[in-house]
């Protein structure tokens, strides 16, 4: 996926692909113990686990709900798995709830290697990326942190192992319609296919799809916190995960714990604003790749340079696709490469081969990019979450604006989510006070958080991280100088800041600039 909705889902794919990790272990459950922990610092307390089973108790003024504790079972490779059952719709009236109205939320835990002082929930983005896969793979916050915290990944409702949506859109067989249409006929084809997909999905799975929203996942997170018997929710979010983390903090500031947000999605932006911002950033990233070829700063560059070769091949594919590769597949493969300079040599080799008539590797990169997450849950979250155009005419206007901002990729990025033009009204904005009784004693803007931005991040540009840092005066900002999307796990300088924050609750008082 190419739009803002995809975000760090691509990071999950990179994490799994580059680490050559195995697929995630299916969550299961059996009788075991629940770890009761606190948020004391490592310096203050060498906490030992205490265990209990059954139902966690919580103060009524914090939450009236009582939930069964998480039951973990070993599931291989030193991991523990479980399933947390959550309501289909947290905001439904009792008369609307049926017996089977629920989602099974898949969980995986990598236990702390030493004496634990708490758990950290991790969301790698998307929306639609698998947190189970992410934590099961090579993701780490550093050995010192891993000694003291359990890392917990979850598949959000409707994603991965957390329930199947009764509707699928297969994007693995190309060529796809041209996401950058040149005339009314191509626009009509694109719009017709988007409308057909939306109509079919809403006919088959409307009750499910309307509950795929960040507002609902925030409530799932709160139930998970209660089930873990944690006094506060410690959270690490990458890309879309930052949007989820900010939403949780708005809804539950009193129980927001240690929070790291890497690659920020502006929580106040409309879909139009996010897509246009991202289109511009990817266009600039393409220009930086072209300059890197000119300066011989990367390898495998085509003889005529990157952009000249891309433009020529894109024009050829407009005239007629090569096998299953058309202009949309070429754009998807290119956008994939622009997420990180680690992929530049591989992509440039593929581009050179495609120029010579062999599009096999372009097809492979495109297919991975377009199918890294299930399209329907991803689109449902985006369409439900954000203010957006609600007609084909409005969508055409947005695509035209994006084309002006980013002539190579703007319309492609916008039109991938054209299904939203035919989506019903969204459930509404994030609720900052779900209980409606004003019981929160903390303004969410006063939470402490470690915010991370990367200078060359095209998917979530650095300005977003800077803006959120300004909005949250008690936060700290780390800027990593790198050509990649998000930076956790890629910078030793950043790792030192993360360790100080998570283990000693110490945030830097000035903006920290880190090398990659």
Please provide a brief summary of the model.
With 516 residues, the protein is an alpha/beta fold. The chain has helices at 9-19, 131-136, 143-148, 184-209, 214-228, 240-251, 271-294, 306-319, 327-337, 344-355, 360-371, 375-385, 392-405, 410-415, 462-471, 492-504, and strands at 34-36, 50-52, 73-74, 80-87, 102-110, 118-123, 149-154, 233-238, 256-262, 450-454, 476-481, 512-515.
Descriptive overview:
The protein is α/β, with parallel strands linked by helices and 516 residues long. 39% of the residues lie in helices and 13% in strands. The chain is built from 16 helices and 12 strands. It has a 10-stranded mixed beta sheet with strand order 3-4-5-7-6-8-9-10-11-12, sandwiched between helices. A two-stranded antiparallel sheet has the order 1-2. The radius of gyration is 23 Å and the shape is globular.
What profile does the largest beta sheet have?
A: 10 strands, mixed
Mean pLDDT: 86
Backbone structural class = alpha/beta
Strands of the widest sheet, in order across it, are 3-4-5-7-6-8-9-10-11-12
Task: Pick out its properties.
single chain, 516 residues, alpha/beta, two-stranded antiparallel ribbon, globular, disordered N terminus
Itemize the secondary structure elements and their pairings.
Blueprint: H1 9-19, E1 34-36, E2 50-52, E3 73-74, E4 80-87, E5 102-110, E6 118-123, H2 131-136, H3 143-148, E7 149-154, H4 184-209, H5 214-228, E8 233-238, H6 240-251, E9 256-262, H7 271-294, H8 306-319, H9 327-337, H10 344-355, H11 360-371, H12 375-385, H13 392-405, H14 410-415, E10 450-454, H15 462-471, E11 476-481, H16 492-504, E12 512-515
Parallel strand pairs: 6-7, 6-8, 8-9, 9-10, 10-11, 11-12
Antiparallel strand pairs: 1-2, 3-4, 4-5, 5-7
Helix pairs in contact: 5-6, 7-13, 8-10, 9-11, 10-11
